[in-house]
C-alpha cells in the first residue's frame, strides 16, 4: 500500500507494517471512520476493531494472508535484500546471521535449568507462545503441563497462584486468554514476579492490542499466536533483560538524563513548535533515557502517560538495531493508556551512525506519515541551529561523588506527584553504579537487595515506613514518606549517625539539583484534530 | 452503618491433611492404594484421589527445573498446600485455608467472600507443619520401620491413631515466631539448686538402672536433659503444649472438686504419674506408657515415656521399650522418686522466691523482646504472657508479630550476622539482631524517636540482659 512511497524515502528493511499486525479485516477500510478522537479522548472504544463489523471468518482469512506475506518478506530479508515498505511486524533480523540464540538451547540440559528466570507464555488451550530460553516446540509438553495445572485448580473454582520450592518460585498469571508463567531462582517475592509477567503481557499487547487478542481467541481457541509474534521474541527477551537490570521497572518510574534545564527547555520548545494535527506525544530520548516529553493538552487531561508505557516504548526501540537506520512508521499500542487501539509511531535517530538520540512522535492518524516526517525535519533544523546534538552528547549520568557524601555508594530517589503537576510523568533519579558495583553480577545483586526492600516496604498487608539493614557487604536504608521514596546504599561499616547525616545531605543536594535531574514541567501543545474527523466527546 | 456492610474475619484453618506414597499404586485404577491417611475421612474417594494426583503433578512439574529440590508448597487463591517428603516416597501434605473476610451485603444478596492472601506467613505455617511431622515421628518412629514391623496396615493404623487426635489440637491462628524457633525455655537456677537436681537424677538413674534418659522440668521450663537436642525440643513442645495442660486443670481444681485426682491417701509425697498408672494403689487398673522413638537417624531407640510430677517439678524417665514395665516397677519408682522429688520441688520453689525477692518486685518488663539461641535452643520472650497450643497471648499487636516473622525470614536468607531495623506504619520500631547463632527481636513504642535513639535504647537492653553476647552495633 504505502510501499512505494516508503521506497522513495529510502527506508530500510525490518520496518513494521503500516498495517498493524492484528487480524482485523476492517482496518484498511475503516481509516476514515477510525475514531481518532475517540482514541484521543480515551473513551475506550476500539476504533478499528469493532467485533460486530467483523464477520468471524475474516479473522482467519486475513491471518492466513498475513502469514504468507510475512514469510515472503522474511525470505527476502534473509537474502539481504533491502526491504522497503510494509513488512512483518517486528521481524528483527538485524543482527542474527545464524548466531545461536536462546531458541536453540537444549531444554534437557542442566544449563537450561540453571537460568535465573524462565518466562513462559501460552494460550488457554495450552499452545506455546513464547519461552525466554529454549524453543517453544521443545517446551510444548512442559507448557501443556502448566496449562493442565491451571485448569485443574480452576475446575475446583479456585485460581492457582504459585509454587515454592527450595531453589525456585513458580508464579502463574492469567490475563484474558493468555497464561504467563515465571520460574525464578531470584528469590523475589511473588508479587514482584507477577508484576514482571504483567510487563511481558503488556509488551505483547503493545504489539497486538488487547482487543485483537481477545477476538482472535474467541474466534479460534487454539490459534497459534506465534504466527503473529514471529520475530518479536527479541523484544520480549530484551524486555526481560531490562526488567532484571533496570530499576525503572521496580520503581514504576522513568529515568531522565540529567540535563541543564535551559537545554531541556529549549529542546521542549523545539518539540512544542513542530506539531501537526493528531500528534499526541513528542518524545526525545538519548542513551535510552528520557530527555524531554511534550504532550497534547486535551489528551493529557483525560489520561496520563504511565511510566510502564514509556518503558515498553523504550524497550521496543532499543531492542532492535533495525530501528536505527532511516525513519520508521509503525503502529504501536500503549497498553496502560488504551489497550485496545493503536497509535502510530514515527521513530528516527537524529545522529546516525552513533544512534544515541532518538525522536519519537506519536500520532493517532495512520495516514499522517508525511506530516509527521515533516515535523521531524523542522525539529532537526531547529536542533542544528542550536547545536543541540553536541550539547546532548555531553550530557551523561552523574557520579554519586557529586553529592559529596563519603559513605554513600548508591541511591535511588523517586519524588511523588506534587498535586499541582499531577499530570507529570513519574520519574526517579539515580547515579551511575560504581565500584564496588562495577560488574554485572554485583549490579544485579544490589538491585536484588533493593527489590527485596521495596517488596517489604510496600507489602500490602504490613507496609513499613523505613527499613535499615546492616548486612555483611553493605548497609541499606529504604525510606518512604508522603513526599518521596528513597533507597540508599552505604558501606557496611557506616554508623547510624553517619547514615542519617548522609541522607540529610543527599536530600538537600537533590532539591538543589531538581531542575537538572527531572523533567519538572512537561510542556504541552494543542493539536486541533482535522475537522472532518472530529468526534465530539459527547456524541 | 450506612452501607449495611458487616465484616467477619475468619482465621486460617486446616482444610485437610494426608499421607501418600505414589509407589504403592502406580497403575491406573490403583490410585486409592497410594493414600495411607486422609483427614477429613468423610471426603469422597475420587476427591481424595484427585487431590493426591494434584500434589504428585506439582512435585513432578517442579522437578523439571530442579530434580533434587521439588515443590514445598502450592498457593492458590483459596488455600495453601504444604508438601514434605518424610522418607523416600512417603509424602505428607497439609492444606490450609487462607484467612478470609465475609462481607454481608444488603438487599439480600449473598455475602461476598474475600480471601486475604497476603496476610499469611508461609514460613510460619511451614514450620508448624514440619513440627507436626516431627511429633508424629517421635511417637511413631519412621514410616519405613513401621512398614518393616507390620506392613502397610500397621502404618495406616498408626497414622490414623496419631493424627486423628493430634490434628484436633492444631491451632493455626495462635502461631507466631516462637513456633518457627521451636525453642525451649530454660528455668533460671542458682548453682546449688542445680547441683541438687543433678545429684537427684544421678541417684535415681543409679538405683533404677533400666533408665536410659532423664529430663527434669520445673514450671514448664527445662532444667536438665539427657536427650539429644533435636528429640528434646519436640518432646518439650509435646509436654508443655499437650501433656501438662491436660493434667494441670484437675490440679488447679478445688480440694472437694470431683476433678481432683485421688491422692490415694499418700501423705508422704505429692508425686504422681502423668503417663502410665493414674492410680498406683489400684491393682486392677490397667496402664500403658506412651512410646517414643529417639535418635532415629542413628541408633533408633524405642522407649517408654514415664512422666512423673510432684507439684511444679516434672521428671521424664525413658526406658527401653523392650522392657516390660510392671506394676511393681512403678511402685518402686513411686516410692523412690516421690519423696525426693517433692522435697526438691519445694527447695526449688523456695530458692526461686528468694531470688525474686532479691531482684525486686515483679514489674512490667521494661523491654518487649524475644530472644533465641540456635545452639542450645534457649528462648525467652517478654512479649508472651501465655502460650499454649490454642492460645497465644501477646502484649503486642499481631501485625507487629508478623513483622518479626518477616525479619526472621530475611535473616534466614543468609548465614552472616545482620541487623534489621524497621519502622512500622503505626510508628512502632522493630529491631532484629542476628549474631553468631543468636537472634534478638525488640519492639519499641517510641513514636517520635529516630534511628539513633532507637539504637541507643536497644544497646541499653543488650547491656543489661545480654551483656556477654556480642551483637552488631
Automatic annotation (TrEMBL), chain A:
Protein family (similarity comment): Belongs to the MON1/SAND family.
Region described as Disordered: 1-62
Start and end residues of each FUZ/MON1/HPS1 first Longin domain: 117-239
Residue ranges, compositional bias (Polar residues): 25-51
Name of this protein: Vacuolar fusion protein MON1 homolog
Lineage, highest ranks first: Eukaryota, Metazoa, Chordata, Craniata, Vertebrata
Species name: Esox lucius
Function: Plays an important role in membrane trafficking through the secretory apparatus.
GO cellular component, one term: Mon1-Ccz1 complex
From TrEMBL, chain B:
Domain CCZ1/INTU/HSP4 first Longin: 15-99
GO biological process: vesicle-mediated transport
A family per Pfam: Intu_longin_2
InterPro entries assigned: Ccz1, CCZ1/INTU/HSP4_longin_1, CCZ1/INTU/HSP4_longin_3, CCZ1/INTU_longin_2
Stretches assigned to the CCZ1/INTU/HPS4 third Longin domain: 363-461
Cellular compartments per GO CC: Mon1-Ccz1 complex
Superkingdom per UniProt: Eukaryota
Domain CCZ1/INTU second Longin span(s) in chain numbering: 211-337
Family classification: Belongs to the CCZ1 family.
Protein name listed in UniProt: CCZ1/INTU/HSP4 first Longin domain-containing protein
Species, as recorded: Esox lucius
